[in-house]
Amino acid sequence: MKGLQVACLLLGWPLLAGAAGAAGAARPAKPAWVYGMLDFTHDYVSQSVEELATSIDRFFANQKHYQYTNRTYVQIRLDGYWRDERTPEYTPRLRAKLHLPGAERRFKLMLETDPQERQTPQDLSQNNAGTTGGAGAGNYFLSMLRERVSESGWNFQPNIGVELKLPLEAFLRLRLYKSIPLGEKWTMRPDQNVYWYTGQGAGSDSYLEFNYRLSDDFLLRFGSFLRWTDRNDYWEPSQNLVLYHYIRPGVQMYYQVGMFGRTAPTLHVTDYLFTINYRQLLYRDWLFLEMRPQLSYAEGEDWRPVRSFLLRFDVVFGRQ
To answer: Does the global pTM surpass 0.90?
Structure first.
């Protein structure tokens, strides 16, 4: 418990300090046109930070890009997963977001095998559905999504659908998210997803992300995630620190440290994850190869080190 609290403080302190410094800085007396030029430069730099973060999410074809994109999007994924003392797993995945004709691009039809709320926080942080639990590859979820952006920049995504199995299970979802610039090199992304399933009850996923641009080739990301579900009736907090590295066109990597916890019976750490992920574009702009070695320490494994490796072929249409 103390380790989780100290780690959160250590990760949060530079963010709070940077925000406080930016808020407290006073402008010297200068002509109005100078302020206009400074504001333009600030907006441009902040936008470039957001564009870098968005391009990374797009390249890795992760859950955020799938949720945030307003284009038709189809992803077919084949994963091979090896872990200590377990038989290998070979799992196909599919998710698609299709514009409905005549709907002025506001309504979309979604088909998924791994919706966010049915993944574990560990898998969700790795863009890695199904390796530690959650919905299986044979479970399909069909839904209708409407997208709306408010004048203040908040994105609203109400969603209604069914899980395609017998008996049918209906669900409702509402997602709200926004990108907020903080200073010249920081952006913040709050993301709230609330949902209700007829068979499993209600739940909430809260995510807060800070992106810091180190250079044109490196982006540092602090991610805080908190889940509550009616079924479990306890909170699942997690913290991830990720360094993204642009190597050359079509090749990127990231290095990740993750810590996961639970509030039952009291707040404590349940897992530590250490990951290196390599992703390369193999053909045109739609076929990718991904390799991911990982080392984990889990309470359920008596804190012994567990090694695993993921080999993935990813076919993505509508990424641009």
So the answer is: no
